[in-house]
Amino acid sequence: MPKAARELTPLEVKRLKNSGRGGNELHFVGGVSGLAIQLLSSGGKTWILRTTVGYKRRDIGLGGYPDVSLAQARERARETKELIRQGVDPIEHRKSLQSQLVASQMRGLSFSDAVDRYLSVKSAELRNEKHKEQWASTLQTYALPHLGKMLVDNITTQDILLVLQPIWTDKTETASRLRGRIEAVLSWSTVSGHRTGENPARWAGNLKELLPSPSKIAKSGNWPAIALVEADSWFEGLRLRDGTAARALEFLALCASRSGEVRKATWSEIDHKQKTWVIPGERMKVGKDHRVPLSATALALLDALPKREDSPFIFPAPRGGPLSDMALSAVMRRMHSVELDNGRPGWRDPRNGHPAVPHGLRSTFRDWAAESGFARDMAEIALSHSVGSEVERAYRRSDLIERRRGMMSAWAEFLRGATASNIVHWEMRG
């Protein structure tokens, strides 16, 4: 039976040095049979456990000194010997653990990267560029700040709640769409092998039990709108405000357009001769070009705007890109706050009492068109809504632009304070 080595102290181990006679030298340190410190000719030190695995003698590395202390080396040696007693080859066991770690790291995918990969694969299924942008924008704005750096396999239902709860009541439609988009990304991640288990963003049997039903707290399309009786006063206040965002909101109101259509409008889309604004299909919800007849008020607004050489946009942001959606919303919020500061109720939707938002101006226009006697189809086409059945739309060749021109001029006059009796309806002429 080999003689047991004397147990060295940490100080003695520290003082050990290679003799310099050539090659590496092994000094057994005691405490655990076979545990030695290898003194390298280069001056370094590493821990070695010399033991028998099956019928073979093995020198098993346990780490370098001083990163692994004497006490730690003895503990590692005991654990290694216990594995051997259990019939496990410690070297093969270590290789297996390293392989599992590498495999786990390869499977590991951040939510941000999962979004990019999902969109690169599935973007062709999205209807148009506007829809693709909405997908990316919604996730970028609300989901990525919390989930972006997390591995998809680590995301839980509680993480999804942290994203959804702040906007579930105030922006219910957006939040509901966001939930579905997160669910789709995580579902793709599961099928792609990057996560396992139930989808934490699913609704049925999961978030449905934790969040109020969207149908109970919001009605689709009910964007808070300016009351008809207050539209001219609101518009007058808007025209007194300075800034690109205020002018963009003014143009949005005059054209009854969506925020994204206005914010990304370029000068090349304006035809001054025909007095029209042609919005390309990739920015339209229906995916088709949309012609907007421009009233004299809208044209005057455009003529008064400066053109920047470094930007094609009519309403550029300070750095030349398009304005953000929040820029227009901020104008309305500030106008509402001014009213409140002056002791007035603010610009609120008369039906639900909520502060009006830019998209609600389209509802104000629709109410005005109905109250003023304009044909339903004209108003719906002005809003770029689909009108009639698929067969009717297939046979409809006209977008009624000349008839709509009179309607949009009357709408501009209404916003500027003209009374109903002063408005000559295009429908009633001739």
From TrEMBL:
Gene3D superfamilies: 1.10.150.130, Integrase, DNA-binding domain (3.30.160.390), Intergrase catalytic core (1.10.443.10). One of its GO terms (molecular function) is DNA binding. Keywords: DNA integration, DNA recombination, DNA-binding. InterPro entries: CB, DNA_brk_join_enz, Integrase-like_cat_sf, Integrase_catalytic, Integrase_DNA-bd_sf, Integrase_DNA_bind_dom, Integrase_recombinase_N, Phage_int_M. Pfam families: Arm-DNA-bind_3, Phage_int_M, Phage_integrase. Residues 221-408 form the Tyr recombinase domain. Belongs to the 'phage' integrase family. This is Integrase.
